[in-house]
Amino acid sequence: MSGGTLRDSQRAMARHLRNPEHVPGPGGVEPRRLKIYQDLVYRNIEGFISNGFPVLRSLYDDRDWHTLVRAFIEGHRCQSPFFLEISQEFLQFLMEEFQPRDCDPPFMAELAHYEWVELALDVATDTLPEQAEPLGDVSSAVLSLSPLAWSLGYHFPVHRIGPGFRPAEPADTCYLVVYRDRSDSVRFMELNAATARLLELFRDNGGATVGMLLSQLAGELGLAEQTVLEFGAGQVEKLVEQSILVPAA
Fold first, then answer.
1. How does pLDDT run across 94-118, given as a tens digit for each residue?
2. Which of 143, 148, 195, 211 could bond 180 through an S-S bridge, CB–CB 3.0 to 4.6 Å?
3. Which CATH topology does 138-247 take?
């Protein structure tokens, strides 16, 4: 078989497997064998997506869910050959390509992003620095956001969504930090806007002390500096205990 003919056959098979109901299979392959490939490809991809987005899956009946997965397989062109990255490709599809249907909740993309973050942190290869000594004078410590902590903001309270709670409209911004702790468990914490902003300052920290960042936060919020320093120091200690904040490299 020539190279061109082989490539043509492979592309014909790929087009068929993406959309077996509307695209005929390549010639010379018996239907029974095609069905095996159809089931194998679909079940593997659908299984990875269902396992990666369990809450999102729980909000759909079987027909609507499988229609969504079929739309992804048919319409999205994955940039990665790795099965582990299918969840990221599915998220990209939802956020950039998919046109929501009447059965799709308004928080669909945000919920998918939140679930993907949990998965991404679970498999991340980053490591936490060695356990720090007690901080002592908190205000003089130089800290940064853990590489295994993501500070996030959503229009919907995605951490509460499930079959029994499906908000129809966005509300005030929901701030969360999702992080992997020293036992390699992925956890989350709900934040207020001030703490979320403080984590942004630590994430972008170029060497400032805790006291300097708290003073900056006080200025941004228009609050008394001493009040923010006193309250913020306690917050910082808790965030260090949970390995959300770590010693700066």
1. 999 999 999 999 999 999 999 999 9
2. 148
3. Outer Surface Protein A; domain 3 (3.90.930)
